[in-house]
Amino acid sequence: MLVSIKNKYRSFPVQIKASIWFLICAFLEKGISIIATPIFTRLLSASEYGQFNVLSSWLTIVTIIVSLNLCYGAYTQGLVKFDQNRSEYSSALQGLTILLVLV
Question: Are 71 and 97 in contact (CB under 8 A)?
């Protein structure tokens, strides 16, 4: 049974393989946060945990506004589009993000 699953997986296109691993990593990320929440609540007081959540929320909002989320959509599309000049494209996007942070 495992051999047939392995052979079927190998026959999948790259896009489906990437989607499968993205799904697995999303579940792992949520699982880690579910496991970490009781640890945080035991170690921190209620007010400290509330401050941590507020700070985390603000950090997420500011990151979206400042960096324009270039690392999510634009970066991956650019890597596909500029496959010959990946290092130059990555450097340009890093420079743009640093400039946005400084502004």
Answer: yes
Q: At what angle do helices 86-102 and 46-67 cross, to 10 degrees?
A: 120
Both tokens of residue 4? Answer: 């047939």
Instruction: Give φ, ψ of 69 to 5 degrees.
Output: 50, 40
C-alpha 41: how far from chain center: 25
Return the structure tokens found at 5: 């699953």
CB 100 within 8 A of CB 68: yes
Under 8 Å between Cβ of 67 and 97 = yes
For the chain, the average pLDDT equals: 88
Checking if the pLDDT of 27 tops 90, the result is yes
**75 Cβ neighbours under 8 A, 6+ residues apart:** 90, 93
Q: What is the DSSP string of 10-61?
A: HHS-HHHHHHHHHHHHHHHHHHHHHHHHHHHHHHS-HHHHHHHHHHHHHHHH
Q: What is the mean pLDDT of residues 36-47?
A: 90
